[in-house]
Target: Probable potassium transport system protein Kup
Amino acid sequence: MHERGKPDEANRFPPRPPHPYLPRRYGEHAHEPARHTPGSLSVLSLGALGVVFGDIGTSPLYALKECVNPPHGVSPTEPHVLGVLSLVFWSLILVVTVKYLTFISRADNEGEGGVLALLALVPAELRPMESARLGVVPALVLFGAALLYGDGVITPAISVLSAVEGLEIATPSLQRAVLPLTCAILLGLFSVQKRGTAGIGKVFGPIMVLWFVTLGVLGGVHLVRNPAVLQALDPLHAVRFFRDNGAHGAGILGAVVLVITGGEALYADMGHFGRVPIKLAWYTVALPGLVLNYFGQGANLLLHPEAAANPFYALVPRGAATYALVALATAATIIASQALISGAYSLTHQAVQLGYLPRTRIKHTSSQAEGQIYIAEVNWILAAGCIALVLMFQQSTRLAAAYGIAVTGTMAITSITYGVVARRTWRWPWIKVLPLLAFFLALDLPFFAANLVKIHDGGYVPLLIAAVIFTMMVTWKRGRAYLADSVDRLLAPIGDFLARVRAPGGPVRVSGTAVFLTTRPVDAPPILTHHVERNKSLHESVVLLTVCTERAPRIHIDRRVEVEHLSCGFYRVLIHSGFMEGTRVPVLLRHAQKAGALPEGVNLSDVTYYLGRETFLATEKGRMGRFSEGLFGFMVRNASSASAHFHLPSEQVVELGIQLDL
Model:
């Protein structure tokens, strides 16, 4: 036994679901739809413009450009432009408006959205938690989540690079400054993340309003000059485009998908603002601005085919107007990048709480907004990845080849999981589920297939990132399951242990309270039995504490702690935590005592926290294998400490070690 400031690695794992002796209460914390006043609705809609629509709102910078430029684009002839615009318009309507805002956004987990929140709605029998087996649906969802990390690396890089490239249009001599300036902006963006988004978030909304208004005005001016482009509203132009261009026409979907890359973000960020404000912002500001701009770019292309080199910046004359547009576009892309970076933090937090990634240090940057967090490791990994991509691809056109696979893959996985939830959780009949699922996949799969041809041009980047993160997630889950099995074999029945405590010659009781963190509160954990065997003493109050992550995003404070008095000064305590919230153990114990659940006789002013520390041998004898166990051990060693994760005072932590071969 030794006392240290850094507690045990093994207790960094979110624990297994508790024994049936202690009830699980999944589903009892029903989410009540938010009621918005007119004032709050407008404020939330403004905020949604600044966060939710950043990604999709900056797509006009590069989306149409990729449709009319080699190697995957088509020449800017009238049939081609009208066909592409028809595809753009109906993609926005069918994918974003119909699929996400009308259907997918209804699959909320107490108001929270995103692919991992959707996984929490899947019935427990389809996502085994205690077993090392992952399951088909969780495997799909985890790969979709891993793809989103790839999206989080590419989006800031392509968005900022495409904005700064406008300098080349204004003054060709500034071409050499594009890459250094892009890298400097990205480095600055990631450097300020630790300060939080609360301050700069106040200006996000107004800037994005100005951005969408600018998009609409610029597009509208050119649309008035050539209104014939409105023919593209007829979906027959898209049909004729595919008929006339064959395989190349189908391949153009790999560029058109850039128009809807922010669709998944609408769902993932739903918990911050709610469905109604997001829908209001989409219908009144974002969608009109985007449609006007795309059609304005198309109208200008028909009059000036040479504008195909950069259709967006061709909307304004070269000179001062270009510089002003570059400045506004850069601000908009920084905001879009901010949304993806914050999304990566939230995704990591959810994965940690659900037990698919090791614990990491999470800094809350706002005392009012719980969702505003900062994770240093994620931040700087994203920063290094973004800058590396900019230096590797050097042009937004080349980088666009790497874009799309991650988003379309996640979109398809979201559709499939939605179908599973609709059938197995909501009990929809097959006659209702199958047509809707077929409709979603009819949209998702062609986009995904069109992006597969870009793998050799850079599409391998998000797939490689996703493969690495998916491997880590699977290894972590398997390792936790095997660890739990190994620890279970060392457990002692709590009844037998209490009999030893009561028997003559039992351990000497000393003043104070001992808290033993354990994944199985019904039995005596190895660290408790080891402590008594070696020290022959025991505190007069002993708390067997288990933290259980629920499928709900947040749990009401009055329902978070359950306490059962055993005997001999022993107490079982179960803390319920939502997958979107943190766990401050000392605070929750004090709350339980004030509420009367934990007796006043338990001295919380003199507490020692006991944690187990496992060392993994990683030999061929274990079930995981040398490589997997070695990777698991590496992740354990680099995970955040349990004292930091549960906000335990480090000077009151004691570790007890054990060696295991998984």
